[in-house]
């Protein structure tokens, strides 16, 4: 059962006029398996610890598939929740300095964060080159504010709210009356 309200675009294509980012929905890189993950972004140490756990925890569905076929062909790298840390798809990921052959979590552990990869942004279909310079300036200003503003740790219930809101916005983000959850109650997207 799909949360999308698809409309034919042409003979070969469907679209949802309210959807904003299928890439950020269950149809994109974020699968239902990853919804079970508890990756903390409260600190770099917690992020490394929880993401390492996801790459070392067996997944029953992937275990049933197996790692190799009967004739020895690779089916997958391993049968863990995440096969490698790069499979974790989130709105932002801390990235280490690149060193040849080094895994990302090892780089974060040894050298810290070189930059933050913002993955929630899509191109603007209403702009001829995909993004306006003033939009980029606003995003940069907002990210600097996020870096310097005092921010409480994200509790588990708030994390679930955030994930549910992200899915709702992916499917219906153009609906300005979309009800989103917050710790202080329900708010509409346009508020």
UniProtKB/TrEMBL annotation:
| Stored InterPro entries | Gln_synth/guanido_kin_cat_dom, Glu_cys_ligase, Glut_cys_ligase
Single Gene Ontology MF annotation: metal ion binding
One Pfam family, short name: Glu_cys_ligase
Q: Which Gene3D superfamilies match?
A: 3.30.590.20
| Catalytic activity field | L-cysteine + L-glutamate + ATP = gamma-L-glutamyl-L-cysteine + ADP + phosphate + H(+)
Q: Does the keyword ATP-binding apply?
A: yes
Q: Which residues form the Glutamate--cysteine ligase domain?
A: 9-168
Enzyme nomenclature, EC number: 6.3.2.2
Q: Its GO biological process terms?
A: glutathione biosynthetic process
Output a single Gene Ontology CC term carried by this record.
Answer: cytosol
Look up the record and name the pathway of this protein.
Sulfur metabolism; glutathione biosynthesis; glutathione from L-cysteine and L-glutamate: step 1/2
| Protein name stated in the entry | glutamate--cysteine ligase
Which species is listed as the source? mine drainage metagenome
């Amino acid at each position: 059962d799909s949360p999308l309200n698809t409309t034919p675009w042409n003979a070969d294509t469907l679209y949802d006029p309210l959807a904003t980012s299928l890439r950020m929905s269950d149809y994109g890189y974020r699968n239902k398996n990853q919804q079970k993950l508890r990756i903390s972004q409260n600190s770099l140490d917690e992020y490394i610890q929880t993401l390492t756990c996801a790459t070392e925890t067996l997944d029953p569905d992937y275990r049933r598939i197996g790692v190799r076929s009967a004739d020895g062909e690779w089916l997958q790298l391993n049968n863990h929740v995440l096969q490698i840390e790069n499979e974790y798809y989130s709105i932002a990921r801390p990235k280490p300095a690149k060193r040849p052959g080094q895994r990302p979590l090892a780089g974060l552990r040894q050298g810290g964060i070189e930059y933050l990869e913002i993955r929630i942004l899509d191109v603007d279909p209403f702009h001829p080159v995909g993004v306006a310079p003033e939009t980029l300036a606003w995003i940069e200003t907002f990210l600097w504010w996020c870096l310097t503003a005092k921010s409480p740790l994200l509790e588990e219930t708030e994390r679930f709210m955030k994930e549910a809101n992200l899915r709702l916005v992916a499917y219906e983000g153009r609906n300005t009356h979309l009800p989103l959850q917050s710790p202080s109650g329900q708010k509409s997207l346009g508020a």
